[in-house]
Design goal:
The chain has helices spanning 14-18, 21-28, 35-49, 60-63, 69-91, 128-138, 148-159, 162-171, 177-191, 196-206, 246-257, 291-300, 316-319; strands at 54-56, 97-102, 118-125, 210-212, 230-236, 260-272, 276-279, 282-285, 303-312, 323-331. Helix 3 packs across helix 5, helix 3 packs across helix 7 and helix 8 crosses helix 9 (177-191). It has 13 helices and ten strands. 42% of the residues lie in helices and 20% in strands. The chain is of the alpha/beta class and 334 residues long. It is globular. The strands form two sheets. The chain has an eight-stranded mixed β-sheet with strand order 1-9-10-6-5-2-3-4, sandwiched between helices. It has a two-stranded antiparallel ribbon with strand order 7-8. The protein has a single domain, classed as Rossmann fold.
Length: 334
């Protein structure tokens, strides 16, 4: 996912001035890959994570030589979402969870799987250019980025997920009409040969809720009409990548955690021990954090960490970080 770069330099306000929405997507989420290759890696990672919550990229060579490690990072993100969905589908069998995505950037991949348990997703993002990129896809504009490959990947991964298929079979015969209807709808989405229904589900869930947000401001600086707490809040590679200041990072993550209702869930992906990351031709400062840092902040703010996954072995000299941290936490009810 993170591409090796030549010698680059930092500039003030790089995040705002140099961030290219389409350039970011094309670098980190290319759509010219083969689905078969992605699914083979997904199968390999799923097996590896069933044995341990820590996976070292150096072990990829045991699977196949010359595998694109950035591709493996992307699959690790999707496999994390697969496991999260298996946990949360039981919690929201009617598909009525309210989801807030913090710092969603110009991407929609993070909404694909979670759209199956929600009827409302709010995509909040600081940069207007990123919000505009998301709106292009929502409006089916000709210039929108094509995410079909990642919908196909998610669809195939979920079809083979035993936990999810169990909940769907159970729900499809439930006496509760809403649970039954939702389970059958998800079955149609996953079993239909095309991904059109899947894309419609994501578009319908988001609607026009693409709004400005700032992790470092009170209430995330969200519009006044978005005042309630959420069942699920997602944050992917955002807080640690928005500042190189540890105190500011702590404040930002706490701001995010405040937007979750008691009993709600925090779905979090972060680069590990990052000092910088690539934006176009620039190096942007980042806050180095590890799995214990994230776990301690969650626990200190009234959360139980349900599970953490690690992806380690990234070339820090080349990409600025040494891996990724995936966390699912639940807010305790006092």
């Amino acid at each position: 996912m993170r591409k090796k770069i030549e010698k680059v330099r930092s500039k003030k306000n790089t995040f705002e001035e140099k961030f290219g929405a389409r350039e970011y997507i094309e670098t980190y989420y290319p759509n010219d890959l083969k689905l078969k290759d992605l699914l083979n890696i997904a199968k390999f990672l799923k097996s590896a994570y069933s044995k341990s919550d820590r996976f070292d990229l150096k072990n990829v060579s045991q699977y196949k030589r010359n595998v694109n490690l950035e591709m493996v990072e992307n699959i690790a993100i999707f496999d994390f979402h697969r496991k999260v969905l298996g946990v949360l589908f039981k919690e929201f069998p009617q598909g009525n969870a309210r989801v807030l995505d913090v710092g969603g950037g110009p991407t929609i991949y993070q909404h694909i799987m979670l759209s199956l348990i929600t009827d409302r997703i709010v995509h909040s993002e600081f940069l207007e250019k990123n919000r505009q990129e998301v709106m292009l896809w929502l409006r089916k504009e000709e210039t929108a980025y094509t995410w079909d490959l990642y919908f196909e990947l998610a669809q195939e991964m979920l079809r083979k997920d035993k936990t999810l298929t169990h909940w769907l079979k159970t729900g499809a015969v439930d006496t509760n009409k809403k649970i039954k209807a939702h389970a059958r709808k998800v079955q149609r989405i996953l079993n239909t040969p095309s991904v059109d229904l899947f894309k419609h589900q994501v578009r319908k869930s988001i609607g026009d809720k693409v709004v400005h947000g700032d992790v470092f401001k009170e209430n995330l600086d969200l519009p006044q009409e978005i005042s309630s707490l959420f069942d699920i809040v997602t944050a992917s590679f955002v807080v640690e990548g928005a500042t190189g200041n540890r105190m500011k990072y702590n404040r930002g993550l706490k701001n995010v955690l405040k937007r979750i209702k008691p009993g709600g869930f925090f779905v979090h992906a972060s680069v590990r021990n990052a000092t910088w990351y690539q934006v176009g031709e620039e190096q942007v400062p980042a806050t180095p954090v590890n799995e214990e840092d994230i776990k301690n902040i969650c626990i200190g703010n009234g959360y139980s960490v349900l599970f953490q996954r690690l992806l380690v072995g990234s070339n820090k000299r080349a990409v600025g970080y040494d891996g990724m941290i995936f966390t699912l936490a639940k807010k305790l009810i006092n």
